[in-house]
Design goal:
Radius of gyration: 20 Å
CATH class: Mainly Alpha
Number of domains: 1
Strand content: under 5%
Distance between the termini: 46 Å
Order of helices and strands: HHHHHHHHHHHHHHHH
CATH superfamily: MFS general substrate transporter like domains
Shape: globular
CATH architecture: Up-down Bundle
Oligomer: single chain
Helix content: over 70%
Largest sheet: none
Number of strands: 0
Number of helices: 16
């Protein structure tokens, strides 16, 4: 049975920067981010091909991304409550194995509705890792190292998202979309086994019967609400760009083949570097200035994607991706630090908004693309980034434990 031992708190201190324990935590959660986000976004690079195969519009095809992120958003809060009762490690491991098994069913789908149904169920299964990972880090990692650890976990998310788009994109040209999804599912299963082998047991987790009892407290905190809004709108803008840029690149004036269009996802590597860097910088100079700067960088990158020049579009995507993941790293770490109790629910509410932004915001972006092509898509994304910037501008760091000062 997949189960990691859960102990009561001991006299050891949380993992500090540079310790062997923290290195193992970082490796385990890096693998968790890889497998989760490979599975979550494995259909995104295939959207133009699946539109053609199944005869559906870009907005309809994007449901293969939106359904998974939408059901994940709905499941993330209940799953986080389960982790308060049954333990962080157990929930993460069961979730990742179940999601990998569902991934193996996708290549067998006989129709678009069947594939969409599997994606919806897979989104629920995937909820366990993102719902619990941030709370696990907040429990087990010393506050002085939490920003960096959160950034490395998110770096794993970016590499997983990159592989989940590149691998299917390349395999599709060689062997078709079914083989593309099958190869991705096998890689996800191998990474899940690595995660299981590496993950240290929880040492500071305390079982709680509170369930969702902390949710009203988090929602009553104005600072938390601002952080949740940042996650919602930034993710909506980000997913919109990556959902529909492929359609632009395979059409005139670019006319790229599917395998080359998939290379835009290499830009995810920008987030692999920017997320831990932003987290560590926020630990040193404060979260608010880093988040404001990251939002401005994201907006600048969006504007650079407007010209019909492939190098400029690529540069804009690189800048936008770096800014987005920097902001997400800071916001997610800030939620864990701000919550004095019910950390799993606090993180889960952030992720609910984050993936709701992916699901609803990403699909709404499809309407912008269908009606005004790329200029309308960029305008829509800029409105969302502006909302994030306004929300972040009103945030303040807490200087003492206790009621919010926002």
């Amino acid at each position: 049975m997949l189960q990691a031992p859960v102990s009561t708190p001991d006299l050891q201190e949380p993992h500090r920067r540079g310790s062997p324990g923290l290195r193992r935590v970082n490796l385990a959660l890096f693998a968790a981010g890889l497998t989760t986000f490979m599975s979550l976004y494995c259909t995104q690079a295939l959207l133009p091909a699946l539109s053609h195969v199944f005869g559906v519009s870009p907005a309809t095809s994007s449901l293969l991304v939106s359904l998974a992120t939408g059901t994940l958003a709905l499941a993330v809060v209940p799953v986080s409550s389960l982790s308060e009762r049954f333990g962080r490690t157990r929930v993460m491991l069961v979730s990742s194995v179940t999601a990998a098994a569902l991934g193996l069913l996708m290549p067998l789908s006989p129709s678009f509705p069947a594939l969409a149904a599997i994606r919806a169920v897979q989104g629920i299964a995937l909820a366990g890792v993102p719902a619990v990972a941030m709370a696990y880090l907040a429990d087990e990692v010393h506050p002085e190292a939490l920003g960096g650890a959160m950034g490395r976990y998110i770096a794993g998310n970016t590499v997983g998202g990159l592989l989940g788009r590149l691998v299917p994109g390349f395999v599709t040209d060689l062997a078709g979309w079914r083989w593309a999804l099958g190869v991705t599912a096998l890689l996800s299963l191998l990474l899940t086994l690595a995660f299981w082998a590496l993950l240290p047991r929880s040492r500071f987790f305390r079982r709680s019967a509170a369930g969702g009892g902390h949710l009203p407290r988090h929602l009553a905190d104005p600072g938390m609400r601002r952080l949740y809004l940042v996650g919602l709108v930034l993710m909506g803008a980000f997913v919109t760009v990556y959902n529909y840029l492929g359609y632009r690149l395979i059409a005139a004036p670019f006319g790229l083949p599917q395998s080359l269009a998939a290379l835009v996802f290499v830009m995810y590597l920008a987030g692999t570097f920017s997320s831990p860097a932003a987290g560590s910088l926020a630990d040193r100079i404060g979260r608010r200035p880093v988040m404001l700067g990251a939002c401005l960088v994201t907006a600048a990158g969006l504007l650079l994607t407007l010209p019909n020049s492939l190098p400029v579009v690529g540069a804009g995507l690189l800048v936008m991706t770096a800014g987005f993941f920097a902001a997400h790293s800071v916001a997610s770490g800030w939620v864990g630090r701000r919550a004095s109790a019910g950390k799993a629910q606090a993180s889960a509410l952030y992720l609910f908004c984050y993936y709701l932004g992916s699901s609803v915001g990403g699909s709404a972006g499809g309407l912008a693309y269908e009606h005004g092509r790329w200029p309308a898509t960029v305008a829509y994304a800029l409105v969302l980034v502006t909302a994030a910037l306004v929300a972040a501008a009103g945030l303040r760091e807490r200087v003492t434990a206790g009621p919010s000062r926002d």
